Amino acid sequence: SQIFLDGAFVSRDDAKVSVFDHGLLYGDGIFEGIRSYDGNVFRLQQHIRRLYDSAKSIALEIPYTQEEMTDLVCETLRRNELSSAYIRLVVTRGSGDLGLSPTNCHGARVFIIAEQLAMFSAALYEQGIHAVTAATRRNRSDSLNPKIKSLNYLNNILIKMEALNAGASEAIVLNSEGYVVEGSGENIFVVRDGVLTTPPAYLGALEGITRQAVIELAGELGYVVKQEPFTQHDVYVADEVFLTGTAAEIVPVISVDRRTIGNGAPGSITKRIHEAFTQIVRTDGVR
Ligand code: PLP
């Protein structure tokens, strides 16, 4: 495969970065996970915008314009002859001396990987997944705003480990006030009496692009969608629960902390929204 790295396309074996890269040493960098479906890069403009917002927020200067970055993503797909792929776009502070100061670094490093997606099994989408509530909390007064898609994912990894340790596939994160925030790397929706609710991003969630697409689709399908705080209790008593993310798409959750959600099978509204989502991913984006 051909990987874009520091201004050139290189082979997978040659795609190596220095141990002095501050992205590696300190998690000083940002990223995006993007998907293409049959040649359409789903909502690429929104991913690029979020990347540049993350960069701005951490005072990281990306050495390309947004238009150039859009072209680079499309070029990476073309070079790999991939029409349906998962794309990982990473910008680090670059290599520098040891020490936290970004002034040590010699300029941002950009790399783009496009790979065939190792999707979740079809059975998982048909049956739904089991989830638990994570003990690891999200603290929304952290100076590192969760809206920044930074390379500091250790908290998310610890949350994923909690899920796996409990024999579940995913974990639901609460913030320090006990409100439901999101999954380890997905946003969350609950459905009760036909009304969809997702936590407002200000509780400490990433503003997911799939989340936004689902809010729009559900509205078009005639459902009421609320962005309001809710607690663990509201998750347990929901008729349906699902998670959304670029890699995961829309995943039904059938149990949380061993409480069966609804009748223990993916809900009808979740299915309708997933169906509608599969309709737009091939047209809504950049070719
Ligand atoms: N929340 C977190 C912490 C994430 O890392 C992601 C993945 O990007 C999401 C939510 C879902 O966002 P999106 O739908 O933009 O992929």
Automatic annotation (TrEMBL):
CDD domains hit by this protein: D-AAT_like
Domain of life of the source: Bacteria
Enzyme class: transferase
Pathway linked to the protein: Amino-acid biosynthesis; L-isoleucine biosynthesis; L-isoleucine from 2-oxobutanoate: step 4/4; Amino-acid biosynthesis; L-leucine biosynthesis; L-leucine from 3-methyl-2-oxobutanoate: step 4/4; Amino-acid biosynthesis; L-valine biosynthesis; L-valine from pyruvate: step 4/4
Biological-process GO terms, alphabetical: isoleucine biosynthetic process; L-leucine biosynthetic process; L-valine biosynthetic process
Keywords in alphabetical order: Amino-acid biosynthesis, Aminotransferase, Branched-chain amino acid biosynthesis, Pyridoxal phosphate, Transferase
Cofactor list: pyridoxal 5'-phosphate
Record carries keyword Transferase: yes
InterPro entries: Aminotrans_IV, Aminotrans_IV_CS, Aminotransferase-like, B_amino_transI, BCAT-like_C, BCAT-like_N, Class-IV_PLP-Dep_Aminotrnsfr
Annotated EC: 2.6.1.42
Keyword hit for Transferase: yes
Function statement: Acts on leucine, isoleucine and valine.
Quaternary state and interactors: Homodimer.
Family per record: Belongs to the class-IV pyridoxal-phosphate-dependent aminotransferase family.
Protein name: Branched-chain-amino-acid aminotransferase
Species of origin: Alicyclobacillus hesperidum
